[in-house]
Amino acid sequence: MQKASKQRFIGLEWLRFLLGCYVMIYHTLHQYPQRFTIPFLAEFTSMGFFATSTFFVLSGFLLTHVYFNGNVMRESGRSFLTKRFCNLYPIHIVALVTSMLVVTFMHWLSIPPQGPTASLRFVIYDTNSELGGTHPELFRHYMTNIQLSFNVFLQMFMLQAWNPYFLTFNAPLWSLSTLFFFYLLFPFLAPKLLAVRRKWLWLGIIMLVYLVPPIYVVWQHQYGMPFTGLLQRNPLLRLPEFLAGIVAYALFRQHQQTGMLPNGTIRGLMVVGILLCFGVATALFTHGARYWYFMLHNGLLLPAQVCLVYLSAMARDPNSSWLRHWSPRLGAASLSIFAFHVPIFNLFRTLEQLVRGAPMTCFKDWNACIAAAGNVQLSVVGYLIYMAITIAVCLLFQEQFVVRMRKLLLRCFPHTKAAA
């Protein structure tokens, strides 16, 4: 059997790809009223935070597997951070610029209902208060010049996750900002967590600590600003997810080496437990009291997310050469899917409205052309095409741009070891 440090987790590759797809659906499907024609589809596609949190757990798990031999990091922290930066920043900066261009294009066309309000200045304050649900217009805001400049600065340096009030330009990019903060701490915290003896105890402590902020917020009934934004994306408050992934890998490695990985019966019970947790959480989140959002978002689902990553790591390599070929490629494209699905969707739906409206009138009567486009209802077939295009574009972007750019950037840092 291969050593754990050399193992390729095909299950984790597919998991991170599917998590990226789930987040894409979560951020875009709500634009389609047709989703209500399928029972429970709207509910079960509303848990985008479950996918993001699982991705953070997976990141801690996989990075520990790749960068550690035993309890010793196989290269310097400086080398690790350089690699992570060179992989993450090209995705971030291109997605940021693309988002700005698409928003500007949407505003220029001004196709209703989204086009007229599209602006680099437009943001929505983050709140989970009752007022946010009954009067959302109160939380719409156009940034001043100072706010705009400050948030451009945050975006350029991947610091936007630290703004607890609102997200700018391309909202999902906060996850890359938070992820990079995790990378900064990884060389210091991972060796310490791998060296602890009572790993189950430490995993439990991490999960309990993670619950402290949402419990405080619920206790104080602070469902508005800035608490909603802090719990949603503050890197320090989301750090337990990443740390849980590190400890989960330590347990997995220990179980693998001692032949104590769960048998078929236990694995089946774990699957049932994960599905049950997801189903109950969906019901509570969509139909329960307001405080359930904070508890589910920050802590209550972490055991299920750790189990999901652990089980996915146990998946055996399939006999299919097709699956073995595509799993690492699609898995590697997951970050690009996280970063680009919103600007691609905004561009796609704008063009779909134009094409399915009265495009020929654009050469004669521009106002009539835009009005016709505004009356177009987005189609389910078009949505499936959008999903396929997004996956294809992100796959090509990852392989043809990110990989090449990473190699080019790494040449500027001779101290960095060659990527594994």
List the helices and strands and how they pair.
Elements: H1 10-28, H2 41-44, H3 48-67, E1 68-69, E2 72-73, H4 77-109, E3 122-124, H5 130-134, E4 140-142, H6 145-156, H7 174-195, H8 199-220, H9 227-233, H10 235-257, H11 264-287, H12 291-300, H13 302-313, H14 321-332, H15 334-356, H16 366-374, H17 380-410
Helix pairs in contact: 1-3, 1-13, 1-14, 1-15, 3-7, 3-10, 3-13, 4-7, 4-15, 4-17, 7-10, 8-10, 8-12, 10-13, 11-13, 15-16, 15-17
Write up what this structure looks like.
The two termini are 20 Å apart. By secondary structure, the protein is mainly alpha-helical. The protein has helices at 10-28, 41-44, 48-67, 77-109, 130-134, 145-156, 174-195, 199-220, 227-233, 235-257, 264-287, 291-300, 302-313, 321-332, 334-356, 366-374, 380-410; strands spanning 68-69, 72-73, 122-124, 140-142. The strands form two sheets. Strands 1-2 form a two-stranded antiparallel ribbon. Helix 3 packs across helix 10 (235-257), helix 4 (77-109) packs across helix 17 and helix 10 crosses helix 13 (302-313). The protein is globular.
Features:
420 residues; two-stranded antiparallel ribbon; 17 helices; 2% strand
**Distance separating the two termini:** 20 Å
Overall outline: globular
Number of helices: 17
Helical percent range?
Answer: 55-70%
Instruction: Tell me, rounded to a whole number, the average pLDDT.
Output: 92
Structural class: mainly alpha
Strand residue percentage? under 5%
Give a brief rundown of this model.
With 420 residues, this protein is mostly helical. It contains 17 helices and four strands. The radius of gyration is 22 Å and the shape is globular.
